[in-house]
Write a structure and sequence with these properties.
This protein is of the alpha/beta class. It has a single domain, classed as TIM Barrel. Helix content is about 35%, strand content about 15%. The chain contains 9 helices and 10 strands. The chain has helices spanning about 40-55, 80-90, 100-110, 125-130, 135-150, 170-175, 205-220, 235-245, 270-280, and strands at about 5, 15, 35-40, 60-65, 90-95, 115-120, 155-160, 185-190, 225, 250-255. Strands 1-10-9-8-7-6-5-4-2-3 form a 10-stranded parallel β-sheet, covered by helices on one side. Helix 1 packs parallel to helix 2 (about 80-90). The radius of gyration is 18 Å and the shape is globular. The chain starts with a strand and ends in an 8-residue tail after the last helix.
């Protein structure tokens, strides 16, 4: 049974940098950050989460934003506030962390972060597309640091088509994860974001995306596979979803286009044990039409 997810309003995404990002990736230029709520200080983050808790009964949030030139989310000033949010509001906290060294991983763990949403950059195109110079060793070090020193859960994400709509290292990135045995892999598909160099690119075909999912199913037999929120919508998504479901290659879909669903009001990267606990707490309201 494929599970459908709708994060809003119970699990909002919050940018702690507004639409600023030092990387200025060619497929985003900071515009994707405009889809998130913005805060600019730890006190604003706390006030926003308290307000959302009172108004919508949020159960958690994704803390994200733009990255520094070294590919990290500048979150250090917010770590004590995250501890306060955990203590005072009981929120589940996910962080879109970026590249992670040992110290960073330890700080995230001490702050009580539950999940790191880790987008794995493609070393073949990261310099050209993301203005981020990394190699395979950097990615492995990040995964190692999170596994050994970081929060209890890491949810890897792979963006399919970051090479101007063409496939590059997607299969290699999936294979790299074999040694880390993730509980979930979130797969995303490049978008045509207006006002960026990617505005007129063609995304990889649905069948090319299906091939990546198929490889992931074979390599990561214990991981649930999620079709994340970032993907072309309309007929493209309908065709992709139907193909994935027919082939048994997807376990989670954010806001499906191909079928009506009882939505789980959470982020698709939460581990099952946290998801089930939250659904019990909100009893009957966890899955809404």
């Amino acid at each position: 049974m494929v599970r459908a997810y709708r994060p809003l309003p119970k699990f909002p995404s919050i940018s702690i940098t507004g639409n600023w990002c030092a990387l200025n990736c060619k497929y985003c230029r900071g515009r994707v950050l405009n889809e998130m709520m913005h805060v600019y200080s730890p006190s604003q983050l706390y006030a926003l989460c308290r307000k959302l808790k009172e108004r919508y009964g949020i159960v958690g949030c994704l803390i994200s934003g733009g990255f520094t030139r070294s590919g990290k989310l500048p979150i250090k000033a917010y770590l004590s506030t995250i501890r306060d949010l955990k203590r005072d509001l009981g929120l589940i906290v996910s962080v879109h962390a970026g590249m992670v060294d040992r110290k960073y991983a330890e700080e995230l763990r001490r702050a009580g972060v539950d999940i790191v949403d880790l987008c794995l950059p493609d070393p073949k195109v990261s310099g050209e597309v993301m203005n981020l110079k990394i190699d395979w060793v950097d990615i492995e070090n990040t995964l190692d640091n999170l596994q050994k020193y970081g929060p209890p859960y890491t949810a890897p994400h792979i963006l399919i088509g970051a090479n101007y709509g063409e496939l590059a290292s997607e299969f290699e990135l999936v294979s790299l994860l074999r040694d880390y045995d993730p509980y979930v892999l979130v797969l995303l598909v490049i978008l045509n974001v207006k006002g960026t160099p990617f505005e007129n690119i063609s995304p990889p075909s649905p069948m090319e995306v299906v091939k990546v999912f198929d490889h992931a199913r074979k390599v990561l037999s214990r991981a649930e596979l999620a079709l994340g929120c970032m993907r072309p919508r309309g007929s493209y998504s309908e065709e992709l979803e139907l193909s994935l479901m027919e082939m048994g290659l997807v376990d989670r879909i954010v806001l499906p286009s191909s079928f009506k669903a009882n939505y789980i009001p959470l982020c698709c990267s939460l581990p099952r044990e946290i998801e089930e606990e939250v659904l019990r707490l909100i009893s009957g309201q966890g899955v809404s039409k």
